[in-house]
Amino acid sequence: MPKQNLQERFQQLAGIKPLYEQLGPRMRNPRPTGPSDDKDDSLDTTWAQTFGLSDDNTYLIEDLTFEMIKKTFFRYYKNVKFTRPQTDEPYYSDSVSFPNWDDSSTPIADESAWQKYQEEIMNSYGNVKIQLNPGADGFDVKYAEILDGKFNQERDKFGKGKAASIQRDQERGWSID
């Protein structure tokens, strides 16, 4: 018998069928990243095509929408923190963040945040490619990566300057905390 995780075991003891068993074999990992275990490989692309998403999660930033982001990161965007009265759009507390050139990141918690981020990137770097990583955990792996030489050069240059500044401060005996 294959090893079960604790949640599956509790569901089994309670007589509850896991959702992936109720809805089909692909629901355990609805967005596979590797070869399919099933004989029908069309299931891998059908999920992406159903939601109008790219199979490799790479888009031109101009073509990417907030709805596509929410569908790609389906494990997030569940908790509505508040609703903006001006637009009646929900603002999510469990959003993902996208990279900036200055080594910071911008939380994309609602449509307005996405439009502002999209506009800032396009004004500075043009219609760049952006790759989404729905398997990211936010600590070791980034949710999104901008695939543009100019953007990445500026980010790397900023990072080197920041590291040099921290090193100078340490050499002077200043705290960096």
Please explain how this structure is put together.
The structure is a single chain. The protein is an alpha+beta fold. The chain has a domain at 56-166. The chain has six helices and seven strands. It has helices at 6-13, 19-23, 42-50, 66-72, 111-125, 149-171; strands spanning 58-60, 80-83, 90-92, 96-99, 105-108, 129-132, 144-147. The strands form three sheets. The protein has a three-stranded antiparallel sheet with strand order 1-6-7. It is extended.
What's a concise summary of this model?
By secondary structure, the protein is α+β, with helices and mostly antiparallel strands. It has helices at residues 6-13, 19-23, 42-50, 66-72, 111-125, 149-171; strands spanning 58-60, 80-83, 90-92, 96-99, 105-108, 129-132, 144-147.
Would you spell out the secondary-structure blueprint of this structure?
Elements: H1 6-13, H2 19-23, H3 42-50, E1 58-60, H4 66-72, E2 80-83, E3 90-92, E4 96-99, E5 105-108, H5 111-125, E6 129-132, E7 144-147, H6 149-171
Antiparallel strand pairs: 1-6, 2-3, 4-5, 6-7
What series of H and E elements makes up the topology?
Answer: HHHEHEEEEHEEH
Largest sheet: 3 strands, antiparallel
Task: Give me the count of strands.
Answer: 7
**Integer-rounded radius of gyration:** 21 Å
How large is the share of residues in beta strands?
5-15%
Shape label: extended
Structural class: alpha+beta
Note poorly predicted spans. Answer: 23-47
Distance between the termini: 50 Å
Mean of all residue-level pLDDT scores: 78
* Strand numbers in spatial order across the main sheet: 1-6-7
- The number of helical segments is 6
What is the percent of helical residues? 25-40%
